[in-house]
Amino acid sequence: MTQGLPSGDLPEPTPALPPTHEATTHGVGPHPRPWPEGDRYDPELLEHGDTRNVVDRFRYWSMAAIVADLDTRRHDFDVAIENWQHDLNIGSIVRTANAFLAGTVHIIGRRRWNRRGAMVTDRYQHVRHHEDVATFLEVMRAEGRPVIAIDNTPGASRIETAEIPERCVFLFGQEGPGLTDEAVAGADGHLEITQFGSTRSINASAAAAIVMHSWVVRHAELPA
């Protein structure tokens, strides 16, 4: 008799997972043979399993194959982040940019940025570096991409009611100080997220997620 349980009340055994696959939240195990054919598949993943944080359709695909697939359907908005303080939120913003299938993430300022929050999603996301705000603005103008500054400072329009161009780049600042004056002055638009409580601002990565989703609601074709 098991200690602490009366006779006849033994716990039900936990059902065993199939020998070749784990729960999808933890990835999948080695692929049963015969293996699927095609250049997209990574033999190492087929052999040993795929525990990456990717959607099921990309299981066992190589990283290059995933990026190539994403490149065929990326959205027409980019994301830019001023990087002066090695902000922990930068990685989280990159992860969200990947989730909403942004075209490119632009890092302005310090070349090195805090990748912890990205959870390796930067491997699937195009990332470009710009030395300073002036250089970034010049490149965006040359590419015909309007820059939309996101900061709840005077002069901003409400994102809930503003027109958001389909082709654009959203520019975010650091947690705390927000965008530099140079960035706001050089932008083609200036939006803020309407708030109702007592705090002056919300977390930078949370704000970025709201803004990207606002673009998706207006312009993206939702999957079936």
Task: Find the CATH topology of the largest domain.
Answer: Alpha/beta knot
Number of DSSP strand runs? 7
Question: Strand order of the main beta sheet, please?
Answer: 3-2-1-6-4-7-5
- Main sheet properties: 7 strands, parallel
The appropriate CATH architecture of the largest domain is 3-Layer(aba) Sandwich
Q: What are the segments in which pLDDT stays under 50 over at least 5 consecutive residues? A: 1-23
| CATH homology group of the largest domain | SPOUT methyltransferase, trefoil knot domain
Q: What portion of the residues fall into strands of 2 or more residues?
A: 5-15%
The domain tally reads: 2
Residues in helix, %: 25-40%
The DSSP helix count reads 6
Oligomer: single chain
SSE sequence, one letter per element: HHEHEEHEEEHEH
Protein model, in words:
It comes from Curtobacterium salicis. This is tRNA G18 (Ribose-2'-O)-methylase SpoU. Keywords: Methyltransferase, Transferase. InterPro entries: Alpha/beta_knot_MTases, rRNA_Methyltransferase, SpoU_MeTrfase, tRNA_m1G_MTases_N. The chain folds into two domains: 53 residues, no CATH class; 143 residues, 3-Layer(aba) Sandwich (Alpha/beta knot), CATH 3.40.1280. Helices cover 26% and strands 15% of the residues. The chain is built from six helices and seven strands; from the N terminus they run ααβαββαβββαβα. A seven-stranded parallel β-sheet has the order 3-2-1-6-4-7-5, with helices on both faces. Helix 3 links the parallel strand 1 and strand 2. Helix 3 packs parallel to helix 6. The longest helix is centred in the last third of the chain and has 16 residues. It is elongated. The relative contact order is 0.13. The N terminus is likely disordered.
